[in-house]
UniProtKB/TrEMBL annotation:
This is Phosphohydrolase. It comes from Salipiger mucosus DSM 16094.
Amino acid sequence: MSETTIQLRSGAYFDFANPSAVELCIEDIAQGLASTCRFGGHCWPFYSVAEHSALVSYIVPPYLAMIGLMHDAAEAVLGDIPKPLKRLLPDYCRIEKEVEAALARQYGLPGFKPPLVKKADIAILRTEQMQLFVPDDKWIETKGAEAANVNIEAWTPDEGRERFLERYYELAA
């Protein structure tokens, strides 16, 4: 073990300095995303990255649904860093790109976010802004964006893990 390694729920180890060294099983991804609150925890109620990811997967065209579901999979080990802070952390951004690339190879996904997935991600972000915060137009990322026609349910971590896995296996079938 090195000082850049963490143990995952499955018992596997993940090394931030070498993200390609271990394949992340989908159960570890689901666990990490379901236990990670969006917006640095500054939303009420608890709202997970797993639910966010599932919502994106439902509003993109079916051929992009798996990419939508997995678009934030790196956050299963990296956590959800608010975008304004992320812009100040170039080393974090480099590591995030390496983890995303490793996951893209492992799960047969493109190494980039297709424009329709980006658009859906922003539509869900606008929905989150409207349903979880005091709505205003000060968020740079959602300027001019329309909200998606979905309701945030605020899944518990256990529910988020199960529902993320259900969606994954539905799409992988």
